[in-house]
Structures are given as C-alpha cells and as structure tokens.
Design a protein that fits this description.
The complex is a heterodimer of chains A (606) and B (374).
Chain A: E1 5-11, E2 15-24, E3 27-37, H1 47-62, E4 67-68, E5 71-72, E6 84-89, E7 95-101, H2 104-117, E8 120-127, H3 134-144, E9 148-151, H4 161-173, E10 186-189, H5 196-203, E11 208-211, H6 225-242, H7 246-252, E12 258-259, H8 260-275, E13 279-284, E14 289-295, E15 298-304, H9 313-320, H10 322-326, H11 335-347, H12 356-380, E16 414-418, H13 420-423, H14 428-439, E17 443-450, H15 455-462, H16 467-485, E18 486-494, E19 504-511, E20 517-523, E21 527-543, E22 557-571, H17 583-597
Parallel strand pairs in A: 1-6, 6-12, 7-8, 7-9, 9-10, 10-11, 13-16, 16-17, 18-22
Antiparallel strand pairs in A: 1-2, 2-3, 4-5, 13-14, 14-15, 17-18, 19-20, 19-21, 21-22
Helix pairs in contact in A: 2-6, 3-4, 4-5, 8-15, 9-12, 12-14, 15-16
Chain B: E1 3-4, E2 11-22, E3 28-29, E4 36-37, E5 42-48, E6 52-56, H1 57-61, H2 68-71, E7 79-80, E8 85-88, E9 99-101, E10 106-111, E11 117-121, E12 125-130, E13 135-141, E14 145-156, E15 159-161, E16 164-171, E17 179-180, E18 193-195, E19 199-200, H3 202-210, E20 215-221, H4 226-230, E21 238-239, E22 247-254, H5 261-269, E23 274-278, E24 281-282, E25 291-296, H6 305-311, E26 313-314, E27 318-321, E28 330-335, E29 341-342, E30 348-349, E31 351-356, E32 359-364, E33 368-370
Parallel strand pairs in B: 16-18, 17-19, 18-20, 20-22
Antiparallel strand pairs in B: 1-26, 2-14, 3-5, 4-13, 5-12, 6-11, 7-10, 8-9, 10-11, 13-14, 14-25, 15-22, 16-23, 21-24, 23-25, 27-28, 27-33, 28-31, 29-30, 31-32
The chains are: A alpha/beta (606), B mainly beta (374).
Chain lengths: 606, 374
C-alpha cells in the first residue's frame, strides 16, 4: 500500500508532539507539526487528551480534518484523515527495568545493553558478583519496584547454579510492579537454556515469566534481539495497559507503540547501516540524556538518568561541580545567585530563557550534561568482556581489546544532536558549539541537529512490521529524516596533537562548489568558521608536524567536506582541550570563540 | 478569546479537600465510611513481608546442593529461632558433624536443591497509616485504604522537604515581604506550623529544627543551603522521606521572594488554626507539590479546584512571573498574541502581554503562572 499521509505522535513526559507527513510531488515531506502538554497526570489522567490537543493544532495549521469527534479519521480520503497513525511514548517515567546477570561485566552487561537498546531506563544491575549480600539485593529489588525484570546468566549448557540462585533472590524479594497492584510482574529469562526448567519452577507461579533465547549463548557472541523484542511486547501488554488512557491510544494506532528511546535508537542504527558510517546521536531531555552510537557496526545506547536540563538540572550541577559549569559562562556572576536560578529551573521545569544571560547559563549547563553523559557512554560502549582470543607471537606485546571502548572520536563520521537545548537553540551556531565543546570530535566529523525532535516518530514509522505498509513507511521515514528532520550544521575539523599556543597546526586548501578557492591557516587556540552550504567541497588538509586529522601524524588528506547552515568549523583549540584557568583570559577566549562562530547578536556579544 | 494552558499552584481559601490514605500493600481498613477522624487516628494497617535471610547450607556443610534437603532439621513453613540448628550432616560414626545454625528468628520459607540455599523470612513489618487531617471518611477502598474529606484551606507550595507534620498555625511576620529571622522563633512555638514572608536563612531554619517546630512556611530559601540540611546536594526535586524534624515549605522558589499575597493573606486570616502540612515534593512525572491544609467545618462558598486548574490563562488573568528577569512579579494579562515572538535571547516563543505596575511587558507564556483568585 502506497501511503499518502501519516500522522505520528510522541507522548513525552511533558509535551506530546504530533507531526503530519504527506506524499507530495513524488516525495514524502513533513507538512505540519503541533504540540500540547502531555496529560498523563491529574487532573486529566488520560494520555489521549494531550494527543487530541496536539492533533487539533495540526488540524488547525493544515486546514485538514483529522478528527471526527475523538477519533482519528483513517484512511485518508480527499482532504480528510490520514492513512496511518503511529505513536511512541515515554510518558509516566518511561519503561523502568532491573536486569540481572551472573557476572556483572558479562551477562549483566549484555542484559543491560538489551534493556537499554529496547528503550528502557535500567534502575539497577544485579549480579552474583556485585559484592552485595543476598538480603541487600532483596531490599534493593523491593525498594525499586521496576516495571519489568530481565534475568540472564550462563552460556548455554554451562553451570546453572548461579542463575538459579539469582532467581531465588527474585522470588524471595517478591517485587511488586510500580503501576497497578493486580497483575504479576513481567520477568524475562534469557540465560542458560539448561536452567529454564528450574527457573520456571522458581519464578513461574509468582511472576509472569517468559523464556527467550539466551542473551549470551556463547561467551563470544551476544544475542540481544530476542530479549529486546520481548521487552517491546511486554511493554505494550503490561506496562502500557496500566498507564492512564493507553488502552484507548493503543486501539487508535496502526502499529505497536514504541518506547521513545527505542524508536530513536532504531532510526540511528538504520542510518548508520544505510550510509555505512559511524554515528553518535544524543537526545538531551528534561530529566535524562540518551546517547546512541554505532561504531564497528555495533549499536549501543546509554541513558544518563539524572543528567537533564530541567527536572535534573541541579544534578548536573552536583555531578559536574559549579566550577565546571561556570567555566563555560562568559560572565562574572554571583555563585549563590546562579545556584538559586538553576534551582528555580528545577522546580519550575517548563520555563524558557527570556534574557541572553539566562540562555548562556543554560547552554553552559548543557555542555556539562552532555560531557558527563558521553563519559558514561564511552565506558559502557565496549567490546564484549571475557572473550578469549587466539593470539599469535606477533600479538604478544599488544593489549587485549576485550572490554575496550568502541567509541573512537577519530573514526566518528556523524554527530547528531537533539532535545530542546540543541534543537531549539536560537542560533544553529550555538548548537554546533555545544556539540563540539562537549563531545570534542577529532579529525573530520559532520554535525547535525534534529530540527524539531521528530526522530522518535520517524523511528516508530521505520519499524512498522505489517507487510503491506512496511516498505512505504520506511521510505517515508528515511526521506523525511534526510529532507526535514536533519539539519546539517556542517563539518568540524579538529587536529589532534601537541602544540604551543599560536603555533600553526593546520593548513587547508578548499575548492568550493562554485569553483572559488580558499586557503586557511589554523593556529593552536583558534576556532574558525567558514560559511559553506551542504555541498561537496574538495579539501586538502595538511597538518603540521606531529598533528593528525585522521590519516596519521603529519599525514596530508585529500577529501570532500560538506558545509551546512553553520559551515566548516576548524577547531584548533587542541585535543585534549583545556580552557584558560585565569578568569579574565577564560571569559575573553569564550567571547572570541563565540564571535568567530557568530553565536550571539552584535549588541550583546560581550 | 485567546487562552493558554498554564498550570498554577492551588491557593484556595475554601475548598473540598480529599486525601487518599493508601496502604503500600493490601491490608486492613480500621474505620467505617462516614466516621469523623482526627489526624492521629490510625485508619488502615498492614504487614509488609519480613526481611529475608539467605543461608547457603550446601557451602556451610560442604555437601552437594542436591543433598541439602536430607540434612535439613526443620521443615519448610515452620518457625525457627535465632541460634537453632537448621541443618546437620550425619558425620562419621556420629562424629565430625557439620552444622548450620539459624542467623535470625523467622519462618523457613524454602530449600533449594539446585543452589543449596535456604531462605528464612523474618517476622512481618507492621505499617500503619493515620488520617493526616481532621475530617470525615468519605470512601473506603476495600483492604487498601480510605479517603478523608474535609472543607478548608488548601495551599500548594513550589518545593518542600520533610514529610507530614501538623500543629497550630503561627504567622510570625506582618508582611509577606518580611524575612523570618532567628529571633522570631521561640520555644513556645514547639509543635507549631510557623509562617514567614519572603525568606528564612539557614541559621533560622536550624533554630526552628532545634526548637521542635513542626513546619516552616516561607516564600524562599537558598538552594545551596539545602545541602547543609540534607547532607547531600539535591540533584532532583524528589523529597518527603528525609528525617529533618521541621518540614519546610517554600511557596515561591529559591532566593528571597515575597510570599504570594493571596497565600499570605489566607494564612494570616487563619492564624492559630490547627494545620496539617506535607513537605513531600516530586517534580517529575506524577508531580507532587508540598501542601498546607487547614480543615474547618464551614461548607458555604466552596471554591472549585477543577475549574481553576483546567481553565488556563486568558486575557484579564492575574499571573505571576516565574523566571528572570521579572521573577516574582504579579500582573494582569492584557493580550495573548497567537504568533511566536522573539525574546532578547532570540528564542521564538508564544508570549503574553502582561501589565505589571502599569507598565506593559512581553513575557513567554511558559514563564507565567496563574494566580488563582476564586
């Protein structure tokens, strides 16, 4: 079936966003969007109210009738209705899981990866070797009241004792689900197949147990998909059933509702596969920051549960320290006043920065939230641990790569930012700066932002299973992603190596798409921006002695760079990057870099 | 007429207050529908399952897990006391026996022949719930709890700490702009809910705690002083379970901010009345704000909570600015233009035009809060 019009919503914890995609002149395009406050909480306690309000806004903007009373009109006919309606959700705190594995860094980590990949928040990882006594584990399980538990452990055919022991701990804890008291807690078992009978005997009666394929059938291989799929099914069957209004919402949608981060992750995976590139995607929200990456064809997602821009903004302050936040603020500001302001943002999370000063403070905090989240991601996105490798004599002096981070900034091709502070920054230059300052890309990296945060809706669209719809829906998702969702900011070129302040570190020759030529000399400590459209630019990058832009120290590169709404950014501030410690010098440097990127209006640049 | 959804805190002088008192697990409800209750009245009771101790008998006896059942001396489901013999090997000709003693009082819950673990569950933990405020049992939820109803004052604060508390209301300042200082707090206020204007310092709050004050209600408090009270930096606003003595309710925000005039006037009017407060705050999905409840029996002229909370702001609404640069100021909405407007920060937002002290200001709607007037 060729889809002509698609309505998609994302029910976030504070806002419900609706988009209308239409097939016009041979291509799928985003036509209209609307949003309304999410209505999961009292006094409404019905998620569909927020959905209807957001859809009504789309209806008004598009002058197209989408609703018949409280029903979405399907299928599309003349200027009424849509062909399909899909939705994602993270309202009500999203999907909160506990995972358990025998060895924390092996099956425990695999279980965590599966749960995160499915879009859940992992509240805790229990493991036989986590150092906690059984009664401490039991107390923890009782306190947390997860929505679901994923239990794994042991390779197929291996010893069963430890994983059964974990099941006994779960049984003794008898955890109650967070939402609703009249249903059994869903538990997924994805461990040693030999222990299945014992696990059923232990947990079968007390919980709603499902057994799927082992998450780690052999040490050298992870098998995450069966667990991930089962988590999605149970999310729909159990957790969503308990949330107010979701039964109605589920009856409206033409495909299963996906957890928001699960949908975003699958879209990032799809892009990396389509273009055969390494990608890092980040979604910085009010309460959490999600990071997704694909390196060496391996997908990873982490959620920094308490690093966000409103509900958990004070936690960013606590974890990063006031000093680290202040270093990005190009003003002298009273510390007490600043902490009160940040505290007030936490308790009134929906407010927006009206003054330039407020904006700069928020963007300083965002840099630290992103930086800390990325540190967590790098330590989680690693090669499988515990894998034994055959080694030859020539490997004898090399480190084993078991447990090494997959994240290699020099390898990174595309960095995509989303979430209010990045997607809605008044100037795209500000988004580019925040991404560069916090992720510190090395070599050549393309930068982009999600224009209006529609990756969740496109992710669920790309995942429709029904045969008659799947192809058309996936095509629509990809076309809209490239044409309307992704705003190409440009490319960052950052040489790596040691140099003294003011030293020449890179010489660049550019042949722009209009045929004109440009020569650039980049010095240590400098940040330069060259306006350039998203078009191919032939470039010769000649690093100074000891500097590396991707081909090795002092190696020249001939390549094609792409500009964007910001252009080409040459970052000579060094990797590792250090801000001046003296206050005057720090403020002066921040202002020079902001001016170089045209980040703020002229009259209030300083 | 233009209209915008803007949640506001409830400040209601005469309303119907309903408080759900629910057990964490099903249990026993101790009052009947229609009964009058006082705050201390226990309305429901249950027992949480006792703590669990796991003893690895196989390891301790040095036997295979599958053989553990044959060495057990106590049957599953039976009571056992701390120090009692739990399991014992037969030894060699009755000698060289290994034994395992029970580490706690409890019931033997299970024995595993796969892991060799034995589960002992300690005695159940009783949990009781009181009525929280003066009122009447308007609903009984079978085995789960009750709803207590009353008429009275209901005021929400923006942030609080400490759980439920109660006492006589004592307003200690003349004006909503006055700071509640150390000298104002005296020993005769023990067990009272004291009210200040714009601010309380850390020293004054600590004095309130040391004097046994039940709760403090003020406009503002410094964010960085929270750490001194809590012992940790408050990263996310989820509070209520901390054991700090005097609950704290701030009505406006962090810093020195005069209490909203309506809240202050109502509290002043009911000075001396018995008051129930709850500092518990959760600013996340399922938002919970701290609250002040002053129950009374007058049933005339009830305000409508539903009307106020769903209405949103319209032209003529009285609003409070909740973010810099006009933080804390109160004005009247003169228009709600539909198109997005550019702020100084260059952020494009929906705005409201607000008249504050006879001057017009353009302010993002997201930075306004409704001041409820009925």
């Amino acid at each position: 079936m060729e889809l002509k019009s698609i309505l998609a919503t994302d029910c976030g914890s504070t806002t419900t966003k609706a988009i209308l995609i239409e097939f016009v002149d041979g291509e799928y395009r985003l036509r209209f969007r609307g949003e309304a406050p999410t209505t999961v909480e009292a006094p409404f306690e019905d998620v569909t109210r927020g959905v209807l309000n957001a859809v009504m806004e789309v209806e008004e903007l598009s002058s197209r009738k989408l609703l018949d009373g409280e029903n979405i009109i399907t299928p599309h006919k003349d200027n009424e209705g849509v062909d399909i309606y899909v939705s994602t959700s993270s309202a009500g705190g999203g999907l909160q899981m506990m995972v358990a594995g025998v060895v924390k860094s092996m099956s425990g980590e695999s279980a965590e990866r599966a749960a995160l990949g499915a879009g859940s928040i992992v509240m805790d990882v229990l493991a036989s070797n986590d150092g906690r006594k059984p009664h401490e584990k039991i107390t923890r399980i009782r306190q947390l009241r997860p929505d679901m538990i994923l239990l794994s452990g042991g390779v197929d055919g291996g010893t069963t004792k430890h994983v059964v022991e974990l099941a006994e701990i779960l049984k003794a804890a008898n955890p109650q689900p967070r939402l609703g008291s009249d249903y059994k807690l869903p538990v997924i078992y994805a461990g040693n197949i030999k222990a299945s009978d014992e696990i059923s005997k232990t947990l079968g009666e007390q919980t709603d147990l499902t057994i799927v394929e082992n998450i780690r059938p052999i040490l050298e291989r992870e098998n995450l998909n069966p667990s991930r799929d089962k988590i999605h099914d149970l999310f729909m069957e159990h957790v969503m059933q308990q949330a107010p209004g979701y039964n109605k919402l589920m009856s409206w949608t033409d495909a299963p509702i996906m957890p928001t981060p699960g949908a975003v992750g699958s879209l990032i995976e799809m892009i990396a596969a389509e273009e055969n590139i390494s990608v890092v995607g980040v979604d910085i929200g009010g309460a959490t920051t999600d990071i997704f990456s694909v390196f060496q064809n391996q997908f990873n997602r982490t959620v920094s549960a308490n690093l966000g821009m409103s509900y958990s903004i004070c936690n960013v302050l606590a974890e990063a320290s006031l000093k680290n936040v202040l270093r990005w603020v190009p003003l002298d500001i009273d510390e007490k006043e600043l902490t009160n302001r940040i505290g007030n943002k936490m308790i009134r999370p929906t407010t927006v920065p009206q003054s330039m000063e407020e904006l700069k403070i928020e963007q300083a905090i965002a840099r630290e939230a992103l930086r800390l989240s990325f540190i967590q991601h790098k330590s989680f996105a690693v090669n499988l641990k515990g894998v034994q490798k055959e080694r030859t004599i020539s490997d004898a002096f090399e480190q084993s790569d078991s447990g090494l981070s997959l994240v290699d900034m020099m390898e990174l091709d595309l960095l995509v930012g989303s979430g209010g502070v990045l997607s809605h920054a008044p100037r795209r230059e500000q988004s580019a700066r925040m991404l560069i300052d916090s992720f510190l890309p090395e070599g050549i990296t393309q930068l982009a932002v999600d224009s209006i945060f529609m990756m969740p809706q496109l992710g669920v669209l790309a995942n429709i299973d029904q045969k008659d719809l799947a192809e058309s829906a996936r095509k629509a998702a990809l076309e809209v992603f490239n044409k309307d969702c992704l705003i190409r900011l440009g490319t960052c070129v950052a040489p790596v190596g040691k140099a003294n302040s003011g030293d020449e570190i890179l010489s660049v020759s550019l042949e722009m798409s209009d045929g004109s030529e440009k020569q650039i000399i980049l010095h240590q400590g400098e940040l330069l921006a060259i306006p350039a459209e998203y078009e191919p630019i032939n470039a010769t990058l000649s690093p100074a002695k000891g500097m590396d832009v991707g081909a090795g120290k002092s190696e020249e590169i001939n390549t094609t760079l792409y500009g964007g709404v910001v252009g080409l950014v040459f970052d000579g501030r060094g990797r590792p990057f250090n801000l001046p410690t003296e206050n005057d010098k720090r403020i002066s440097s921040l202002n020079v870099w902001s001016n170089a990127m045209n980040e703020y209006p002229d009259e209030i640049k300083q | 007429m233009a209209h915008a959804y803007t949640p506001g805190l409830k400040v209601l002088e005469s309303t119907s207050v309903e408080k759900e008192r629910r057990l964490p697990l099903k249990g026993e409800v101790l009052v009947d529908k229609g009964a009058d209750v006082v705050p201390e009245k226990i309305v429901a009771r249950t027992h949480l399952p006792g703590n669990v101790q796991m003893v690895n008998v196989a390891n301790l006896l040095n036997v295979d897990a599958q053989d553990v059942p044959e060495f057990m001396l106590i049957d599953t489901g039976k009571n056992i006391s701390k120090g009692d013999l739990l399991a014992e090997t037969k030894g060699l000709f009755g000698l060289f026996k290994s034994e395992v003693k029970c580490p706690v009082d409890g019931v033997l819950e299970s024995v595993s022949n796969v892991t060799g673990q034995v589960v002992i569950r300690e005695a159940p933990i009783p949990v009781e719930i009181d009525a929280y405020m003066n009122g009447n049992v308007s609903e009984v939820m079978d085995k789960e709890g009750v709803v207590i109803s009353s008429n009275g004052v209901f005021i929400q604060g923006i942030f609080g700490m400490g759980g439920e508390n109660r006492g006589d209301l004592r307003v200690l300042v003349d004006s909503r702009e006055d700071e509640l200082t150390e000298e104002m707090i005296t020993i005769d206020m023990k067990g009272c809910v004291i009210v200040g204007g714009s601010y309380i310092s850390l020293q004054a709050y600590k004095k309130a705690i040391s004097m046994g004050i039940a709760a403090v209600v003020v406009g503002g408090f410094n964010y960085h002083d929270l750490e001194d009270i809590l012992g940790y930096t408050l990263g996310v606003a989820i509070t209520g379970s901390e054991d700090i003595g005097a609950s704290l309710i701030i009505t406006e925000g962090y810093g020195k901010i005069p209490m909203g005039a309506r809240s202050f006037d109502i509290l002043k009017k009911y000075d001396g009345n018995f008051t129930s407060v709850n500092g518990a705050t959760q600013i996340r999905a399922g938002v919970i704000r701290p609250e002040i409840v002053i129950p009374f029996n007058d049933v005339d002229n009830l305000d409508s909570i539903a009307k106020n909370s769903e209405g949103g702001i319209t032209e003529g609404s009285l609003v409070r600015v909740i973010r810099s640069p006009y933080f804390g100021q109160i004005g009247t909405v003169t228009s709600l233009p539909p198109e997005l407007q550019k702020m100084e920060s260059e952020t494009m937002v929906r705005v409201a035009e607000v008249k504050i002290n006879n001057q017009n200001f353009v302010i993002p709607r997201a930075n306004l809060e409704m001041v409820e007037t009925t």
